Amino acid sequence: MKYFLPLIFLFVSFLGKAQITSSPAFPTASVAVTITFDSSMESRLGYFTGDLYAHTGVKIEGSDSWQHVIGSWANNTTQPKLTYLGSGRYELVITPDINTYYSVPATETVTQLMFVFRSADGTKQTNDLPVTVYQSSLAITISSPEGQTLFQQNSSLSISALSSADADLSLKMDETLLASQTGSSISTTTTLTDTGWKWLIASASLNGSTTYDSLHIFVSPAPGTQAKPSSYKQGINYISETEVGLVLLAPNKTDIYVLGDFNDWTPSTDYQMKKDGEYFWITLSNLTPQQEYIYQYWIDGDVRVGDPLCDKISDPYDDSYITDAVYPDLIVYPSDKTSGRASVLQTGQTAYEWKTSSWTLPSKENLLIYELLIRDFTEDGTYQAVIDKLGYLERLGVNAIELMPFSEFEGNSSWGYNPNYYFAPDKAYGTKDDLKELIDSIHNRGMIVIQDMVLNHAYNSCPMAKMYWDDTNSRPSADNPWFNVTSPNTAYSWGSDFNHESTYTQAFVDTVTSYWMNEYKVDGFRFDFTKGFTNTAGDGSAYDASRIAILERMANHIWSVKSDAYVILEHFAANAEEQVLTSYSNGMMVWGNGNYNFNEATMGWNDNSDFSWSSYQARGFAQPGLVAYMESHDEERLMYKNLQYGNSSGDYDITQLATALERNAMAAAFFFSLAGPKMIWQFGELGYDYSIDYNERVGEKPVKWDYLDDTNRQKLFDVYSAMLRLRKQYPVFTSGTETRSLSGATKSLQLSKDGHHITLIGNFGVASASISAPFSQTGTWYEFFTGETYAVSSTSQTITLAAGEYRLYSDQQLPAFKDLATDVEDQQIAASSVSVFPNPASTQLWVQADEKITELRIFTMDGKLIREVSPEQSTVDLNIANLQNGVYFLQINSGSKTTNSKFIKSN
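Above: the chain's sequence. Below: its structure in C-alpha cell form.
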C-alpha cells in the first residue's frame, strides 16, 4: 500500500497486481479519466468476460467512507456499465470530469475514486479498488516494486517512480539517498543488506514545491532450519493454556510469517516460522488462556491464508450476517488489519463431554438413511434446531441420518458443496459444540451419523488453492501439491479439482476422514462425485482401474481408523466398476438413483417406470452395497411432478393432492421392499411438493412442518413408518431373495428368506387392471395394510386392482399396519399399564402408571420437546391449557420401562 508524507506506520495486507489503472496516470478532480480494469489479475471476481457494472463512489478529504455513490447495488439501470475490450479487460470513462460525474460540490475535495466491479446478477464481485485523485499538477508515484512488501535479505531490489511533470526527482531508503535526477521518471537498484522494516521514499520538486510517495517494505532474513518437535502435527498443537505450536505444510515455499492478534498483525523475526523440510513451524508463547486469537500465514510476502487444518475461521464476508442466537459472542474480524479468511485459535478450551459412550452400527442391508440439509430442515437452520426434531425422525423409524456438508463453505446459505476449510464446522449452523451435541443426541437415540464429504474439489478460497495460485488464469498453478491445474473431467467440474493421484492429496484425505471420525465421532461418509477421483480424461462414466485403486486406498485408511465405518460413494460410473467397489473388503456402498423410474410410475406414465435398477440384486452386486433412493437433494421431488404432470383417466387424477400422495405411498411400499440399504430425502415421507428449482436450485426452500396437520400427508408418513419398522423386524425385507416383475403398469415383487415369503403387487396405472399375482405356495396369506386373510389356491392368482391400489401379502402374519404406523399407540399403553385421560383433553391431562413415573416428556408432532417433568409419583396431573390445539406425543419413563403415547389438545 502506498502512503503520502507525513509517513504514518500502518501495515495493511498486500495488494494484488495492477487490476485497475487510470489515464491520465495522475488524475485530478477537474479532468476526465478513463479507468481500465484487468480481470485476469488477482481479484475476487476472477477472469471475467461477461457484462460488468461499477458500484462506484468517491472518498472525500477528512472522511474514510464512500460518498456520492452512483445508483444502488446490483441495479443495472442506475449503475455504470463497463465497456468490454477483450481478454478480460474493461473500460469505464468518467466524463466530463470527476466532480461533475459524481456530483461532488465545490466545498468538498475528492481524494480517491472507489470501485467494486460486479457481474450483472451481483453474485460475483471484486474487492474495493481505489484510484488516487491528486490535488495538484505535480505528483509522484512509486511504480516498482508493485504489490509486494516482503523481500529477502541480500536480494537485489529495483525501484522506480513516475512523476506527472519534469521535476527534480529522488529515491531514498529511509534517510539514505539511492538516486536523483531531473525528468519525469527515475529508477535504481539496491541490495537489501539490513533486515526489518524500511521506507522507500520518492520525491519530486518543482518551483519550490515538493511532493512525495512512499512504500513500507519488510526485509526478511533467511528462515532458520530446525526440526519441529516430534509431537507437532499439521495445524494447531495446543501445548498448554498459554502456548501453541503451529505447523504448515508448504512445499517449495521460502519464507513464512505468522500474523495475528498476538503481534498486532505486524511481521517481525519473532514470528518468522522455522523450516523443517516441507514444513514450517513456530511455537507461540505467553497467550492468554481461553482468549481467541485470529491469525494468518503470510507466505513469501505474496499471499495471506488461514490455517488449512484450523477448526474455526473468521470470515470478513460472512460472519457479520451470523446472529448471536446462532453463534453467541462471535469474534469480530479485524478488517483494519488484514483481509481474506483467517483462522482462530484458543487455548484452555473446555472439551465437550460426550454423553453417549456406545452405540451399534446397523449392517449395510439394514441401513435406513434420512438425508437432510440443516439449512432447510428447520426454521432456524441450526445444529440445535435439528436436535429438537430427532424425536420425529426416531418415530419415523430411520436409523441413520446423513447430514449434507457442514464443514466451512463459501457464504452462509448453501448446500455445502463449495467447501474451503475442511476441519471447521460452518458457523452459520452454530458452534462446534452444538455440532457435537447433535451427533451425541443422534447416537443417544440409537441412530448413527453419516457425513456428506466433498473431496472431488474445493472452492478457490480454500487456503491450499490460494497458496499456489495462477493469478493470470485464475486457477491452481502447476506447482500446486494438491490440485490439478484444470479438471480432467470434460463434462463436470467445480472450483479447484483435487489431484487424487498426488500423495499430498491422499495424505490430506486421510487426515480429513480421521479427524471427523475421531473428533466428532461420525460413523462414516458419503463422498460427493467420486467418479471425479481420477486423472483419467473423460466424463468419468467409463470403467477406470486407476480410480478403483484410489478409492480402495482411501477406504482402507478409513477402515484402519474405524473398522465398521460406512464408505458411501456418489459414483454413477460403469456398473462393472460399482460391482468391484461394493464387493471390495468391508464393502463400499454406492448411491442408487431411482428417481426417474419411480417418478414415472407415480405419475402413471409406465413405459419407463421399471425401477429394477434400484435393486442391488438386479445389478449383480455381491453385497448389499446399493443405497437406493427415490429422492435426494439432487433430484426433482416426486410430489411436485405428480401434481404438475400426473396422468389421469376419468375421475382418477394424479394431479389431485390426495391421489398423488397415495401414489407415493404405493411407491414407498415397493421401494422399502427391495433388499439392501435405503435413503429418504427430507420431507419425502410427507410428500414435499416444492420443486428443486424453487428459489433457484440451491436456494432456500420452505420448511413445511405444517404438513403434519394434513391427514393425507400423515397417511403417507404412516406407510413410510410402517414399512421401515417391517424392515427392522423381518430380514426378508432387507436381505430376502427378490423375484421382480416391475415393468408396465401392474408390478409385482416377491421376497423369500428363511421360509418367510412376501408378495407385493400394485397397479401404477390410472384405470382398474388385473394382475397375475405370484405366490410361492398355496394356503392362507395375510394382507398387511388391511389385516385381512387371503386364501391362495394357485401360485399364480388373478387379482383385480383399482388404479393406485397395492397389497402386501405375507405367508406369516405381520403386526397390524395400524400398530406399526405411529398414529396409533393404544396397544403400547395397554401393554405397559399406563393410562392417559381424558383424550382429547382441553385444560387438564392425567397420566397414571402402575409404578412411579420418573420422567415425563411432551413433544410436538415434529419432534420438539416442549415440556419435561420428573414427578416421582404414579399419577401426574398436567395443565395443558396453554398448549395450542393439535396432536402431541408423550414419553413416559416408569421404573425400567419407557412408554410412548399420544394425546389430542382440543378446546
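The chain has six domains: 20-132, 140-220, 235-347, 364-725, 731-822, 835-905.
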